[in-house]
Amino acid sequence: MALSRLTSRSNGISRPLSTAFGRFISTDTTPITIETSLPFTAHLCDPPSRSVESSTQELLDFFRTMALMRRMEIAADSLYKAKLIRGFCHLYDGQEAVAIGMEAVITKKDAIITAYRDHCIFLGRGGSLYEVFAELMGRQDGCSKGKGGSMHFYKKDSSFYGGHGIVGAQVPLGCGIAFAQKYVKEEAVTFAMYGDGAANQGQLFEALNISALWDLPSILVCENNHYGMGTAEWRAAKSPSYYKRGDYVPGLKVDGMDAFAVKQACKFAKEHALKNGPIILEMDTYRYHGHSMSDPGSTYRTRDEISGVRQERDPIERIKKLVLSHDLATEKELKDMEKEIRKEVDDAIAKAKDCSMPEPSELFTNVYVKGFGTKSFGADRKEVKAALP
Amino acid sequence: MWGILRQRGIDGGGLSLRRTRSASVSARSYAAGSKEMTVRDALNSAIDEEMSADPKVFVMGEEVGQYQGAYKITKGLLEKYGPERVYDTPITEAGFTGIGVGAAYAGLKPVVEFMTFNFSMQAIDHIINSAAKSNYMSAGQINVPIVFRGPNGAAAGVGAQHSQCYAAWYASVPGLKVLAPYSAEDARGLLKAAIRDPDPVVFLENELLYGESFPISEEALDSSFCLPIGKAKIERQGKDVTIVTFSKMVGFALKAAEKLAEEGISAEVINLRSIRPLDRATINASVRKTSRLVTVEEGFPQHGVCAEICASVVEESFSYLDAPVERIAGADVPMPYAANLERLALPQVEDIVRAAKRACYRSK
To answer: Which terms are listed as keywords in the entry (chain A) (predicted)?
Structure first.
């Protein structure tokens, strides 16, 4: 299986438009050590240290990218209500720290695969806002040419394998990518992300068993936001200690609202997986929105709970406090940054709105790589037909 | 408008007693003061009544209880019957479907909901190998009185993994019964029949029909109401061309029939109601009358429901056909997300009209 070729390795997030905050502090990589808010809880392994190495650059980067992700998701909410986005739309606001922390310690050769709450993961892998909004609105410049939709974002050149609608399916797939990485001796790992709802899926345990038997570099990342659609974790799982559910597979429980804890855990996991095979990371996180835009999110949890998490554990607020306490920027500078981000998002939306819908001929493209000229048909087979190339 | 043909209820072997009704055709579908009911309420009331009548009937699926149902079909049932009759499951179709089939083996009557039939693929081994074939393999010792229900086919903008129609797949399996309601009356009568049926029934609903209202007769509102399995309904009488379809496409076919009537073509619209058993008798009788056939379905064309209907007609009524059989189906591609492509991927009323005119050798 051909793997993507990357011309550069980067440890940080590659952001096409990351020069905006050059005004404040551009390339200051003064090292900073950050303590995670909570200790790690370990299963069958020794937990990593709570002291996380970072830099001023990274701290500001974290803030900016998470604020961008947050703004993007909120904007998607409005677009959905305006009926510019159709079908399903699952938003990630609240969970940004997981996407950001993971990207900070991996390369574009390490693979990520996730379920349908994939907009921010795509952005973290180097996707652009324009591609996101164009895809959400079903336009031809979308990352899947408008043919996939919200749940089916991919970025193969950054080893991001989607974007999957069927709960749990992405986990065996992720272990398969890890299999391929080991097969070609790539020295890379795969992060297969899933939720607490998917954690009970049988196929997960089947894939984990094989990964452990064959020492595959699979890292299973459970984004435990405590609700599988409308069902709280205690109603779906006899054991909601997801980091322990691998039984013979080691695991780590991580504060998923703390980007630095996530970073440390992912670094630890990558080192482990390359030497010892699979490991499970449970990210204790939270989604502010309901399961999707069709779910108000308030029939199965209280508004107090939601606002409580927002007040006590919001991942962006946490980074903001760190930025301020380390004197890396002032309140006003951060506010200006947020204003710029808003504009960046608005500009991307405006551009995406102007993008045209896919050509009708795109109905028949990409069915196969090699179609042998097979006939394919539209709804009226005598009127609309095509030969698949 | 279209006539309502009320059919005599004739049982296949071994079914419980049904009320027989006299056959009558009324010229109007609306009587003075007639009620309307949404498909959603029809399904809800059907499950409610069958649970009330038989304590062995229970409901199982994701979000069916406390959430009131992902599409609100099971609304109020948990409050009314309690957690011993309505079970919220984890997101584990293979597991809970297997458990449901096992419960049916032991004599209970589960109504298993798939949030959409796309997710039934996780459980398809149990539907086919554990449920459909058991009565045969055990020579009648183990029957499986289970209903698998949920929305099937395309919704709006839900993409490739959430839009497939499974009618052809399930209807090809001996041992399964496969039903597809269109109207509120269909929904009530067929679901009640399915729950009472001693065999495994795949009950294919349609998300976009849930909110649609249909007139419903007093008879259909009665708690003993039931529709026969295996009988199609002639929704609209006609003499020039037969249009056969099921589920949401029945509505499209009726609209097409209106348009065709304006051009002097009288179309007969058949609502299959039952994909397996397929009512070959009604279909063939109609084609022998009109000599022309248009079949319509939302699913993929190759090896589809329409293909079987066409084969049946060509086999049994070949000399009556005056034109080639026509198939209108979903496009032969995974469902695209973009709105314009999605529209091209699904049958539209104009496609049905065009095919019917072709069958009548009329130019566009």
So the answer is: Oxidoreductase, Pyruvate, Thiamine pyrophosphate
